[in-house]
Amino acid sequence: MNTSTSLARVIVRQLIEAGITDAVISPGSRNAPISLAMYAASEKGLLNLHIRIDERSAAYFALGLAKASGRPVPIICTSGTAVANYHPAVLEAHHSNVPLLVLTADRPANLRRTGANQTTEQARIFGGAVRYFADVSGGVFPLELPLDSLHRGPVHLNLQFEEPLLPDDSSDWLSEIKILPKAKPAGKSAGTLKVNTARGVLVIGHDRGGLSVAEVSQIAKDLNWPVISEDPLSFPDAISHAALFLASPTIRKNLAPETAVVIGRTTLSRSVNALISSARSQIVVDPRMATVDTYRVADQRFIAAPKVEAKPADLDWLEQWQKLSQRTSKLVAEISNWSESTLARELAANLSGTVFIASSRPIRDIESFASARTGIETFANRGLSGIDGNISTALGIATARQSATAIIGDLAFLHDLTGLVGNTSANLRIIAINNDGGGIFSTLPQAGVAGFETVFGTPHGLDLAQIATGLGISAKTVTSLSELQTEMKKPISGISVIVCQMPSRDANAAQLKNLVANLESI
Fold first, then answer.
1. What is the pTM of this model?
2. 338 pLDDT above the threshold of 80
3. What is the predicted pLDDT for the residue at 168?
4. Residue 72 and residue 44 in contact, taking contact as beta carbons nearer than 8 Å
5. CB–CB of 41/72 below 8 Å?
6. What is the pLDDT of residue 128?
7. Which of 38, 145, 399, 420 gives 20 to 30 Å between its CA and that of 457?
8. Average pLDDT in the 88-110 region?
9. Domain 335-519 = CATH 3.40.50.970
10. Domains 192-321 and 335-519 share a fold
11. Residue 208 DSSP class
């Protein structure tokens, strides 16, 4: 057996024995040994193979699959620029502690810096973004350390494959496999969070720092403080519309807490972040402080869910928040025009199952206009909140579920069109919010500056439904809530796109501004 075939088979066998069930391959020549080994495993029902021709899309697809399954997912590519295309998803995995196993094929080390075709410095290309790296040569490599490191985030193995790249025997190397996945090592006790203040606030970032909804709900129950959740679809007792009424400096000043407990990273809402800054003390609960956010500053820091010892909460304080939420809810309910505000409100109220929410305006609008509820499983790429890979991540999530819905802006949709290329068994409905450009910038300080439309607004003038149809995907454009509701009642089958054609970005920004102004009087 040649060296490359031996190395590939040894690695694939160890991955299967460790309980890995899915792998994502992008086609290439140098990765032929491991691609063929994985194909052989899939033919025996030991692996589910997913083929994505674009490495950037492939990595994000695997990221979504890993998030939803809770298992490591290997991604396999050839040498050269293919490796660099993995970098955005590796960074997202790094900042989210997602177990992404990056297997990059390479030529032998003696061909580096010799002018050999498709050969570059792939060793340590991802720098500190991976928990473990090895530049692998020879016919055998043990995976105990890499597999253990995946519990803390992404891992990179650069595999040097010498020619011949094709197997030269047909031995039954997949017999007598024993699948014995190791349990995640138990972490140290988080200790006890002792709180001596009665007027505090609990702020929950969208991905909860990797903690479960149950763990966070227990902390919320023990504190009995007002809860602000960037993901109001998972916490029914959260204060609805807090990001809206806290935009009022007067209200925010009156609600300045003695203590703010933040789980995960703070939200994208500037008003909520301003409230956190006004607290006399800040306490952070986030496992990523052990791996990524090591310099994060707080009065107390916990890298796991702590036990809570709290004095009785001030019920008048909680009631004050609840009344503001109720008054804001009335204003939100009165918005009747077809707008991004009403779209977020109605989607949040009527969605079910699994939902992926893209960054930029969608995640902010859901936080602001949704009424707190439960019954939805939510995902988002909040490690770095990038525009890239949103469709692919959602497809990976949908592949691990019976079906899913993705809420994505038009630029994020266009940015990841290659995610729609390729066969997939996923049932995914994509709701693309089309305001013809970067709507988020119309609500930020750069709105209205000279050259705004050119460098920030970036109108594209494209028909998103027509683009999707051109890729063989069912697509429909809607321009009203009634049309949207009709489409949403249809079952999710395969990939489909609902394009919500919205009024101008300026009109949306003006409506938000007027709403916040009206909140001053509540």
1. 0.95
2. yes
3. 87
4. no
5. no
6. 96
7. 420
8. 96
9. yes
10. yes
11. G
| Nearby residues of 448 by Cβ (< 8 Å), 6 or more positions away | none
From residue 223, alpha-carbon distances to 23, 197, 289, 295, 302 in Å are 42, 10, 22, 26, 16
**DSSP annotation string for 365-429:** HHHHHPPP--SEEEE--TTT--STTHHHHHHHHHHTSS-EEEEEEHHHHHHTGGGGSS-----EE
For 217, half-sphere exposure in the C-beta direction (CA atoms, 13 angstrom radius) is 12
Under CATH, to which class is 192-321 assigned? Answer: alpha beta
Please answer whether residues 437 and 410 qualify as being in contact, where contact means their C-beta atoms are separated by less than 8 angstroms: yes
- Phi (first) and psi of residue 363, to 5 degrees: -70, -35
430: which 2 tokens? Answer: 């994509």
**For the chain, which residues make up each domain, given as ranges?**
3-160, 192-321, 335-519
CATH class, range 3-160: alpha beta
Ramachandran region of residue 203, left (φ > 0), alpha (ψ -120 to 50) or beta? Answer: beta
Number of Cα atoms under 13 Å in the Cβ half of residue 69: 24
Compute the C-alpha angle 145/151/154, nearest 5°.
80
φ/ψ (deg, to 5) at 327:
-65, -40
Q: How many residues are present in the chain? A: 522
* Residue 120: HSE in the Cβ half-sphere, 13 Å Cα cutoff: 12
358, 363, 369, 374: CA torsion to nearest 10: 80
CA distances for 28 relative to 13, 65, 148, 308, angstroms: 21, 22, 28, 52
Q: What is the pLDDT of residues 455-511, one digit of tens each?
A: 998 999 999 999 999 999 999 999 999 999 999 999 999 999 999 999 988 888 888
